[in-house]
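A.,

Following up on our hallway conversation. Structure tokens first:
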């Protein structure tokens, strides 16, 4: 299968390396020092499940050199979606499947508006990984899996083909018949976690152990559940208590990708996480005071270095 990957960061680099190792025609669309290192030395993945070393990989900043592909994986930050659309178009044929693995609940609609409704599949990635240094991806923890599916719930031939590709590449993957539920379920969990760890500059363990911080975390989750209900989306969770149990089971020292970005003065996904909760809440008449507070407290940092 011919696969184009928009972004070779923690998500795209990890799963792309596994796909390339299994023999598929994978091209990474990337830029900057990370691209230069990949072009010179290939790509290395350091993982608790086993390292991957690819002495040579296909990597470019010009998708016109790639040609048409069977699948595009979109793995960039949500703030880069418009830029990603321009990169996807030269690789798209009539039957190309565009699978977004981005955070947030709005990227599918943004992609469909510019690429066509029939081209886009939804997806989520559960993984903790990052660019350790140019050309090197570091993945930690036992979690590294994908969930994806057609937005109308059908088990299409293209989705089944990509599932088989993932399985042959030793990627834990699930083809969902309700991918919107999967996307929102992750959003309900991810958004408060990213927001609170970034706001407090602390780990999830410290937050859940502090009475006041835990109360804020619970409040943020409650608002997400009310928002999903107002939009008619079943997230498959048994209330706030189930989400809090998920936080309680996480390693004490775990933080989040947005926490990392705050500390390293990188652009934040704030507008597409807590900011989206505030924005969507206003659209459906749901009050979101906790997420509004998180958004207001972090928004001066959202563009990176200040």
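Then the amino acids I'd put at each of the 306 positions:
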């Amino acid at each position: 299968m011919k696969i184009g990957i928009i972004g070779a960061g923690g998500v795209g680099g990890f799963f792309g390396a596994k796909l390339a190792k299994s023999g598929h025609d994978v091209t990474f669309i990337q830029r900057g020092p990370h691209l230069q290192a990949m072009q010179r030395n290939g790509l290395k993945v350091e993982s608790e499940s086993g390292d991957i070393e690819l002495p040579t990989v296909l990597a470019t900043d010009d998708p016109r050199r790639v040609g048409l592909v069977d699948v595009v994986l979109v793995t960039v930050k949500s703030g880069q979606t418009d830029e990603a659309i321009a990169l996807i178009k030269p690789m798209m044929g009539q039957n190309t499947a565009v699978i977004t693995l981005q955070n947030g609940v709005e990227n599918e609609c943004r992609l469909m508006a510019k690429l066509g409704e029939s081209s886009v599949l939804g997806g989520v990635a559960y993984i903790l990984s990052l660019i350790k240094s140019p050309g090197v991806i570091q993945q930690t923890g036992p979690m590294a899996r994908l969930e994806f599916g057609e937005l109308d719930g059908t088990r299409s031939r293209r989705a089944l083909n990509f599932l088989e590709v993932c399985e042959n590449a030793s990627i834990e993957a699930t083809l969902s018949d309700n991918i919107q539920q999967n996307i929102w379920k992750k959003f309900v969990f991810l958004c408060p976690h990213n927001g609170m760890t970034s706001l407090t500059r602390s780990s999830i363990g410290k937050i859940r152990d502090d009475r006041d911080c835990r109360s804020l975390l619970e409040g943020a989750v409650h608002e997400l559940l009310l928002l999903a209900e107002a939009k008619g989306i079943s997230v498959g969770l048994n209330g706030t208590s189930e989400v809090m149990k998920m936080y309680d089971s996480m390693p004490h020292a775990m933080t989040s990708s947005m926490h990392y970005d705050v500390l390293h003065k990188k652009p934040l996904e704030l507008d597409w996480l807590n900011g989206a909760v505030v924005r969507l809440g206003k659209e459906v008449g749901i009050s979101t005071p906790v997420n509004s507070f998180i958004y207001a407290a972090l928004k001066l940092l959202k563009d990176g270095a200040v």
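The chain has a mean pLDDT of 97. Curious whether your intuition agrees with the design.

B.
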